[in-house]
Design goal:
14% strand, Arylsulfatase, C-terminal domain, Alkaline Phosphatase, subunit A, 26% helix, four-stranded antiparallel sheet, binds calcium ion, alpha/beta
Length: 527
């Protein structure tokens, strides 16, 4: 049903769906009835729930036992759970860039770490995004929650007292409400559309001043901003989850006539782990687990609202995460209680090992996605652009989502003879550790996981070889929590035989290493 990519430059976007239908009728490909049916299926409402730092082992439907996620599990029972889904990066901002643009963040020279207080918008305003795609297809579009992709132009220092643009509204969202950077980093305020909520001219936000909103550990003011007391007062850590959930539900109800596209980006379960009081000590995994319980409740409230509005059958609902679980102090406490953030996978958030970027990915699409199915198709959040383009019958131009692969067949539960994706590039924190998957092989360009640098238990950024020493996981490069002398210079794993990356086979398969290196170079040269 898809016209060739070669033909896409010729056809104007406007009226494309109509034209495509007429062509298909002309060639006798589908009947009128099929068009009516297809258009219903192809124009569902779409909700993407992008949780923050939910690891592969953080949901009960993915094997967790110290936390309970009945609402998310129910979505899994009603749809497809992917077991080989990856965020484009093991780091928040680049992962979100990949989701938004369908482009590998590694193509952006400076997009390896998380964006902070003063960073400009990291996406060009003329770039295709999932929001622009849906808006141009006639959808109402909103982002509610954590943005974390910057505001303003590169050449100007961002002034939080002025309209915050360009930002999400200049990339195709009709509406934005949420936490502008992240919940552990200032400004600790909400932004609605272009403005900080509650900010008054008499009390502007001022760089360099400390804010008063520092109730919790693990809130860092690497670049401080203070003032704006009324705006700061509206932001209460233990109310964020409830507030964002309420805003999302209100927006869904206001737009029930559809079609709508909601990108709901929670601050759960990023530290400092501040769920509402009713969730404190509700899990068996400390504040980390309690934060998962709040997330599950938020998801349940949203699905309940969809039921009340009669929107379940015509809504494609996706639940995923921006990166794997982090072994911060909350993560360590959870681990000591027996919770396995990333299941048995090796590695953590920010890192190149599987735990850093293999994440839960659940698709509920009644009548389209088979209920209760598990799929081992290799997919990524970078694939959302091409998949949504298929759903709204829009062909992408060459420079639109160049790294995005149409996963519609995977969403429909169709299993082909070959994987849909031939390869997938994944960014960890360190450029040197750029990672590529191809079939059963994964290649990492250097030693260790290339993520956080903490070396001792109790440190916020505990990770890498030292953390593997602590968790007693096995890896052939690591001895006593250190990379052993004589370990290969880079890493190759056969995930089919060795899903937990116990054995680096770099020295055993020099041809595969050469091919994987060449594949990275070739992929990153093309765009
Ligand atoms: Ca994250």
């Amino acid at each position: 049903m898809i016209l060739s990519r070669e033909g896409k430059n010729i056809i104007s976007h406007i009226g494309y769906f109509l034209l495509k239908s007429l062509l298909l009728i002309a060639f006798g490909v589908i009947s009128h009835h099929a068009i009516a049916q297809t258009s219903t299926l192809e124009r569902p409402n779409v909700i993407i729930i992008n949780a923050d730092d939910i690891g592969y082992g953080d949901l009960s439907s993915y094997g967790a036992t110290k936390v309970r996620t009945p609402n998310i599990d129910k979505i899994a029972e009603q749809g497809i759970s992917f077991t080989d889904a990856h965020s484009a990066s093991a780091v928040c901002s680049p992962s979100r860039y990949g989701l938004m643009t369908g482009q590998y963040p590694a193509r952006q020279e400076h997009l390896w770490g998380p964006l902070m207080l003063k960073e400009p918008l990291s996406i060009d305003t003329d770039q295709m995004t999932i929001a622009r795609l849906m808006k141009e297809a006639g959808y109402k579009t909103a982002i509610i929650g954590k943005w974390h992709l910057g505001f303003g132009r590169r050449e100007e220092l961002l002034d939080w007292n002025k309209p915050l643009k360009p930002g999400p509204l200049e990339l195709g969202f009709d509406y934005y409400y949420g936490v502008p950077v992240l919940n552990s980093h200032p400004p600790f305020v909400y932004v609605e559309n272009h403005h900080v909520v509650g900010l008054v001219p008499e009390d502007p936000l001022v760089y360099g001043k400390m804010s008063t909103a520092r109730e919790f550990d693990e809130k860092f003011e690497l670049d401080a901003i203070g003032g704006g007391e009324a705006a700061h007062a509206l932001y209460k850590d233990r109310e964020i989850g409830t507030n964002l959930k309420n805003r999302a539900i209100n927006w869904i109800r206001e737009n029930r006539e559809g079609p709508f596209f909601l990108y709901f980006a929670t601050t759960n379960i990023h530290h400092p782990f501040t769920p509402a009081p009713q969730f404190i000590a509700s899990s068996d995994a400390g504040p980390y687990g309690d934060s998962i319980h709040e997330l599950d409740w938020m998801v349940g409230e949203i699905t309940k609202a969809l039921e009340e509005e009669g929107l379940v059958d015509n809504t494609l609902l996706i639940f995923t995460s921006d990166n794997g679980g982090m072994f911060n102090r909350g993560g360590q406490t959870a681990w000591e209680a027996g919770h396995r953030l990333n299941g048995k996978l090796l590695g953590m958030k920010f890192g190149a090992w599987e735990g850093g970027h293999r994440v839960p990915f659940i698709v509920r699409w009644p009548g389209v996605a088979p209920a209760g199915k598990k799929s081992d198709e290799l997919i990524s959040n970078v694939d959302m652009l091409a998949t949504l383009a298929d759903i709204v019958a829009r062909d992408l131009l060459d420079d639109e989502g160049p790294d995005s692969v149409n996963m519609i067949n995977a969403f429909k539960g169709i299993e082909g003879d070959k994987p849909i994706r031939e390869s997938l590039v994944i960014s960890p924190f360190q450029k040197t550790h750029l990672t590529i998957r191809s079939g059963k092989w994964v290649y990492i360009g250097a030693q260790d996981e290339g993520g956080f640098g903490g070396t001792r238990i109790g440190q916020h950024m505990f990770a890498g070889a030292a953390a593997v020493g602590f968790t007693s996981q096995e890896n052939s490069d690591i001895e006593n929590g250190k990379i052993r002398a004589g370990a290969p210079p880079a890493q190759l794993y056969n995930l089919e035989n060795d899903p937990y990356q116990t054995t680096n086979v770099y020295n055993h398969f020099p041809d595969v290493v050469r091919q994987m290196k060449a594949l990275i170079e070739e992929t990153m040269r093309d765009s």
